[in-house]
Amino acid sequence: MSSQQLIASHRENAEVYHGDALCKQKSKELLGKINMPKGLLPLDDLIEVGYNQTTGFVWLTQKKKKEHVFRLIGRKVAYDNEVTAFVDDRRLRRLTGVKSKELLIWISISDICINDPASGKITVRGGREMKAAPLVKLLYVCFLSGTLALGATTGTTKQAAMKANLLTFEDMENLKLAEELAKTCFEMYSVTSTGLAPEIAYFNVQGNSGGGADGGNKSSKFIHDIVMKLADGHNLLQPETVELLFFLLSITEDTANGVGRSLRHLRNTQRLFLEVTLQCDCTSSSEK
Questions:
Q1: Can you say how many angstroms the Cα of residue 252 is from the centroid of all Cα atoms in its chain?
Q2: Among the listed residues 131, 244, 100, the one whose alpha carbon sits nearest the alpha carbon of residue 184
Q3: Which long-range contacts (CB under 8 A, 24 or more apart) does 251-259 make?
């Protein structure tokens, strides 16, 4: 059921408020009533806030999406146009419209609660419990990124597609996702001391790294976040990463910043290792 359908099904007998100032006041009062921090939902330009006391369902509607950084915990959170939840004492459950950025990916938040008020800690759970460390295969993440970018713009440049009004909201979201996946793909390279990404990497999320080791590049800010196991640390020098960066470079025309710089870095790194490999092969052959 979509958020709009949820709101419609709980609107009857609900308290409904309109206007940004009043909605902000009522949302803070509600959070205080259930003993949750009043700054937990820092939405702007609120259109409507509703609360059905019988079912415990609450919704907040804002004019546009918003991203907010909780500096105390160093976490970026994104709020959709519509945010809904069922509220209990010290808990928001079945939450929709809220995502948290973990490393380089966005994870939907489904539950926020305070288990121990004395500790001052808030527990946040994603849409799915992570029983194992999330892993990513280099081939898949890089290939998917390029595919999303090509599909979003049908191969033309982003600027040309926008000028011709060819991009739908879904296309823009897919293009944004492609760029985020490309960042993840590149960081898998930059986190290692060799400059080559492992074929499989693990994300250290919620303290679960899957027992892997870091990549060795101590200057990487993701040194403790992207880890690998010994059997997965090799690189097959496949072309997918360079291909996806070429696609993004052609589509975004970003020659000076992240995409162009990443493409040059990976191209030079792979060329260097190919030259070293060929030299080793030639040396071995001559010795025989």
A1: 20
A2: 244
A3: 251/149, 251/150, 251/153, 251/155, 251/156, 251/157, 251/158, 251/175, 252/157, 252/158, 252/179, 253/157, 253/158, 253/159, 258/183, 259/182
pTM over 0.70: no
Tokens of 126: 């994603």
pLDDT tier at 273, thresholds 50, 70, 90: very low
Whether 110 contacts 125, CB under 8 Å: yes
SS3 118: helix
Name residue 75's beta-bridge partners.
70
> What does residue 157 show for φ and ψ, rounded to 5 degrees?
-75, 155
**Could you identify the residue written with the tokens 């121990």?**
116
State the Rg of the chain over Cα. 23
pLDDT in tens, 208-267: 555 667 788 888 888 888 888 878 888 787 777 777 777 887 888 765 555 555 555 555
| Domain boundaries defined on the chain | 3-126, 135-287
C-alpha pair distances (Å), 277 with each of 259, 272, 284: 27, 9, 11
